[in-house]
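User: Fold both of these, please.

Assistant: Here is the first one.
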Amino acid sequence: MAPGTETKVNELDERKVVILKAIIKNYLETGEPVGSRTISKLSGLNLSSATIRNEMSDLVEMGYIIQPHTSAGRIPTDKGYRFYVDSIIRESDQRMSEATSLMVQRVDKLEMLLKQMVRLLAVDTNYAALISGPSTSTTKMKYLQLSIPAPGQILMILVLDGNVIKNEVLQAEEEMDYETAMQVTVMLNNHLSGLSLREITPKIITDIMVQAGEQKGNVKLVLDAIVEMLEHGETNRDIFTSGAKNIFKYPELADVDKAADLISAFEEKDRLNELVNEVTSLTVADGAAGNNIQVYIGGEGPIKNLKDCSLITAHYELGDGMKGVIGVIGPKRMDYEKVMQTLQNMKEQLDNAYVGNDGQSGPSDDK
């Protein structure tokens, strides 16, 4: 912000602010003076053209807009542009402050963080955004908890680094009471805590089964569930999306058939997992480090339905092998520089989101 040019925020009421922003946005897009009838269609104020003309007259008197000719619409003045730019800066600072606050809080549940971040990404870029949950095949187990929610059932709760929580209800092979469940929990944690799937060797499995005694059937059931959860987590991640409707803002993507294909690709979990997995594979195949910015234009992308779009991705890492993908999908004429910078900033935030005070991965103990 230039010195001495600060805008008086309280000088304009909410209605004048909406009208002024609508005038400036329309003028930036068309380069033509903006009339009251145009604003009545754009602003969503449900006001008559006469009322809007009165507000526009006030804005002229206040120096935010001018009327170049008697019968012409209005165009912004330097003061109007300054208000517009300052408001963008304030809104951007607020969003970044909210994101930073989110990081400082070090929320225990990664899912909450990712949902917040993907919404912020869609708002910041004005395109469609996605974030995948981290892969888990190299993630270390923090601990396992078994309980008995009902006779014949075993509730298995698996907590991974980063406090990623997996759970499943299993049908017991043998009768198991609460005390036995606690004993099996302690035994499994003694053998498995701190290990990734790749570190669980056949010898460890053999030792566990020897100690299982009469609970061999249930222990095998739990071990199989752990393996399935971790293997499934590598290729079937949680995918969080936001801003799908933003594609309708761009005429080249708003065609009914194109829009249907795009939304279908964007909302189907299997196809999004395919996208994330192929992006990851392409990055590795290119010899990249796995966490850099990648740009796919049109047919270069991994999903055919996105051939009319550009896709920009980045990989984030929470430590201990927990990696995920952030992506933005938009028209080929997207603002590449802005999107790449936004992704880089968000990647860095996610990289640092789960680093504790000791420098190790995992949420901080500070509350």
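And the second sequence with its predicted structure:
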Amino acid sequence: MSVIEIKVPSPGESISEVQIANWVVKSGDFVQNGQVIAEIDSDKATLEMTAEASGEITILAEAGDTVAVGATAATIDTSKQGNAPAPVAAPKVEAASVAAPAPAPAAAPSPGPAASYAAGHAAPAAAKMMAENNVSAAQVSGTGPGGRILKSDVAAAISAGFDTSAVPARTGERTERREKMTMLRKKVAERLVSVKNNTAMLTTFNEVNMKPSMDLRAKYKELFKEKHGVGLGFMSLFTKAVCEALQQFPAVNARIDGTDIVYNSFCDVGIAVSTPKGLMVPIVRNAEMLSLADIEKGIGGLAKKARDGKITVDDMQGGTFTITNGGVFGSMLSTPIINPPQSAILGMHNIVERPIAENGQVVIRPIMYIALSYDHRIIDGRESVGFLVKVKEMLENPERMLFGGKTAEEVLLGL
């Protein structure tokens, strides 16, 4: 007998234990070398665990169990290959004649788990779409390997519509459902409580007339996409505006380390992303040096990795400032919580047409409320308000982003 131990991989240097999120195979199944057999959650990322050999698997840790990194989660007996579907030799056909079709063979044993281990199991991107649209796995037919549900399968099922006649009627029955918190959710909870208890957090607000930025985007979006291969979104404009403001108010880009204040000359901007596993904040490095196109590409790539469960610990470590956009969910106003050890976070909200006074006249403009939550131990009111005003100026005069925070006229006049 040759038994291979499948050990829990490490998601990062600082992580000592993980949680088995779910197994996509069961004990006794035949698995192929390199096949995904489980998903594991840490407090920072989700990883796939793969088989390191072909053979019969025995699971040693149940879904939901917390296990140490390096511990044996399963074993594979490579001497047992009986469940693998045997290759079928093609019948030998004489060149001079065409053989009649052979009789149908007797019913073969059911296909081994190698062909069905993933049946009904959704890929991360598909799981996200299913959760957003309240679709269950039973309503979707998977076309991926082994019947795995892909994002395209969910989209096809939604577009085709569902038979609602089978939906059970509401009975008024009072039930409860209990689930274990994932390690990521537990870590988020601990960090949020820590921030509230260990910082002097305040929030200041302002409003932005988004018409100039919206006009710029509408004017150049087609040319921008044709030139750079990505769309021009508001997040890149906000990131660029934030970087300009951080250069003028370095305390907002700093952090407290013991009795020291650490100031950063660079802007590593975290972009909060909602995923099926919870909130994640991947980092756009040196955002102050990037063009709008590079920022859009960076944000898009990181967001996709986060939603597909491919994000790594390195992608989320070391940010100096965070932007979160509750507006995509319809939020009008909120007080975002600081992402430690950072000292501030900017909250974006939805854009709503509102009446405002402009040149002595009441006009309708697309307005967004923005909020800056900050640690008052390191950031004073003057700096927090000045920072928001600077962001507002950048977005209401987007040409300033092209000239280091100045208008074209100010650059021309040497002001």
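Confidence is low (pLDDT under 50) at residues 83-117.
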